[in-house]
Amino acid sequence: MRPSQEREEGLLEAMTPRKRLLNTLQGKPVDRVPVHPQLPFALGPDGFRPGAFHGYGDHDDWREQDPLYSEIIDRVEKECDSFFIWRPPCMLSEPFFVPLSMTRSEPPVEIDGMIVTTKVLETPGGRLSAVSAVRPGTGHTWEIEHFCKSPKDARMLMELPWEGHPPEIGNYHQLKGWLGDKGLIWVTIPSPLLVVCRLFDPMEFLMIIRDEEALVYELMDLAAERIGANLLALLQAGVGPVIRFGGAEHATPPMMSPEDFDRLVVNYDKPLMDMCRDHGCFVAVHCHGHLRHALQRFREMGVDQTDPVESIPDGNLTLRKARAIASDRITLTGNIQMRELHTEEPEAIEKRVRQILDEAGPGKLVVSTTGTPLERITPRLAANYHRLIDTVLEFGRT
Description:
Blueprint: H1 3-8, H2 17-26, E1 35-36, E2 41-44, E3 47-50, H3 67-79, E4 82-86, E5 103-105, E6 109-111, E7 114-123, E8 126-134, E9 141-145, H4 151-158, H5 172-179, E10 183-190, H6 192-197, H7 202-211, H8 213-236, E11 242-246, H9 258-278, E12 282-287, H10 292-301, E13 305-308, H11 319-326, E14 331-336, H12 338-343, H13 346-360, E15 365-369, H14 379-395
Parallel strand pairs: 1-15, 4-10, 10-11, 11-12, 12-13, 13-14, 14-15
Antiparallel strand pairs: 2-3, 5-7, 6-7, 7-8, 8-9
């Protein structure tokens, strides 16, 4: 049945955001292309409110204090199609190798306008530390130093007992109830590669994987085993409907080769993805960067959705080519760059959105952004978010 025919028969009228997103993921007709600006928000009994992504924190809650941000979140709730990121504590990356009971945080200090925190881990083999920093007014925490500065440090971590957070879902069902028909939950979990890579400085990791390949694969095996155990418990508790993996981008060009991607992402992520499908969930992958090889593999792995689908010049393929590779198998979610939202005029954003609709739509498409603002919204940025939403609402009808 054609979308126009279904509309004539009233089957596409008054489609809720939840239904619109589900139909998009399933390749079924929708009344219009979904729009997901990917602005973090919190959920409560009264609906959406400004807030950090679930499981993350803002140093000074700047989103709640920004009237322009609040205005956009109001539109997101009333007019958009939201994926609510839910990050269970048992899927935090660090505790898969760093025992919480053996870790302490030193008092924060201010250095060059940044609030700097050092975490210390005392092991039988020696002292390890990690340093993070946040600039007031932004809320985003940057990792300055990682626990592993050498292969020896990683071997010390492997000898420690795994504690981690228990695989509990907390108030998941309450959050799902608050979200209701306004969207779907993205259950966010790390790929084994993400857990292992972030033990090290990301650039140092690129050298370690060449010099200490056996060590890296030992770490990968442990990470996969531990993630899999927690994931199974979450799935058995009924989380879903979309399980969103993060970490594949660490193995895309130019950082790594297609062969590396197959060994480190395909081989380790696919069993976890199969587990998700066995429990009736969709599989999504968050993956920045050069996507040409990865997108082909995602299709072969049965991935249902990927974001943010960066195209030339930020990626290595056009959006039209991405659609050709994904065919009708993968829902493409993207791909307005944050750089564009910060610097372009609203007319340029409208042109880009219409280009996305033309090259990747109308089916199996969610118009979205490649990131999220890390500090207060400027008038230009606010105007561009509004134009993005307006354009999809006007031109995205199917």
